[in-house]
Specification:
By secondary structure, this protein is α+β, with helices and mostly antiparallel strands. Helix content is 27%, strand content 22%. The protein has two domains: 134 residues, N-terminal domain of MutM-like DNA repair proteins, CATH 3.20.190.10; 130 residues, Orthogonal Bundle (Helicase, Ruva Protein, domain 3). A hairpin with a 2-residue loop joins β9 and β10. The protein is globular.
């Protein structure tokens, strides 16, 4: 499932391609046809993301709410829109900025414009501002949002018996973090994924939050996840680059059985709440509570 940096990058790309333009909106597949007709030919104001949710704003405070789910994909491309291929649920095609009608010549003749196609999403609905606010209110803080409050997540974590590995994947606790960032931030801070949330120290959580803010912002910039520190890159260590469909250099994610870059111990994996968990048993030793029971 795409993680929060992917949705933030899509929001930026959509705003850059269509922001302030009158857009043709259609649903070649047909499932979004009625809603598409309501906003077809109106101005696309911009796009924003919250966790794994994407909101495309149109004039009149109307929003297309998208959740890509496991297989959803939204392609934003420059050029004339070709005939749709496959089950395109939503198509956006630029028509030109409203203000261009006041400028001689309008859009440059050689400007091919932009189009975007959505396929496979689990959610694509037209909602109003109140519904958008309600969706965001149900989410934990998103490290990519300027209005995020890490204390909201800390209060949930500090009071929970659930493992930190489980809590980090709960979108009501922390929005936008998926399996890759979960595995990698825990490794970078040498924290046992099975450690109960309530046993974390406040400083440990703050360090993890600050790390996620930086890592996910870099993910937006590069459009991929890289989590290894400079001294652990392939060039610095003289090791082969990672070969994986997900790309990026990581410490433990999808490296089960391979040697840890730091200590050489084989990376372990096991299922946790339906998702594969990855960690190094030496760099992230099993948590042992120091609390003493009364005699």
């Amino acid at each position: 499932m795409p993680e929060g940096h992917t949705l933030r990058r899509l929001a930026l790309d959509l705003t850059a391609a269509f922001g302030g333009e009158v857009v043709a909106v259609s649903s070649p597949q047909g499932r979004f046809a009625a809603d598409a007709a309501e906003i077809d030919g109106t101005e696309l104001v911009g796009a924003d993301s919250a966790g794994k949710h994407l909101f495309i704003e149109f004039a009149g405070e109307r929003f297309v709410h998208i959740h890509l789910g496991l297989i959803g994909k939204l392609d934003v491309r420059r050029g004339p829109a070709p005939p749709p291929v496959g089950a395109v649920r939503l198509r956006l095609v630029s028509r030109g900025r409203p203000s261009e009608a006041l400028r001689p010549g309008g859009r440059e003749a050689d400007d091919p414009g932009w189009y975007a196609d959505l396929r496979g999403a689990t959610r694509c609905d037209l909602v109003d501002a109140s519904r958008k606010a309600a969706v965001i209110a149900q989410l934990g803080p998103d490290p990519l949002r300027a209005d995020a409050d890490p204390e909201k997540a800390w209060r949930r974590i500090a009071a929970s018996e659930r493992s930190i590995g489980d809590l980090l994947m709960d979108q009501a606790v922390l929005a936008g973090v998926g399996n890759v960032y979960r595995a990698e931030v825990l490794f970078r801070h040498r924290i046992d994924p099975q450690r109960p949330g309530r046993t974390l120290r406040r400083a440990q959580w703050q360090a993890m939050w600050d790390d996620l803010v930086a890592l996910m912002a870099e993910g937006v910039r590069l459009n991929r996840i890289d989590t290894v520190r400079p001294e652990h890159t392939p060039e610095a260590m003289g090791r082969p680059s990672r070969v994986d469909d997900h790309g990026g250099e990581v410490y433990v994610y999808r490296r089960a059985g391979q040697e840890c870059h730091i200590c050489g111990t084989p990376v372990r994996t096991q299922e946790l709440k339906g998702r594969n968990l990855f960690w190094c048993p030496r760099c992230q030793p099993t948590f042992r509570s120091r609390a003493r029971t009364a005699p």
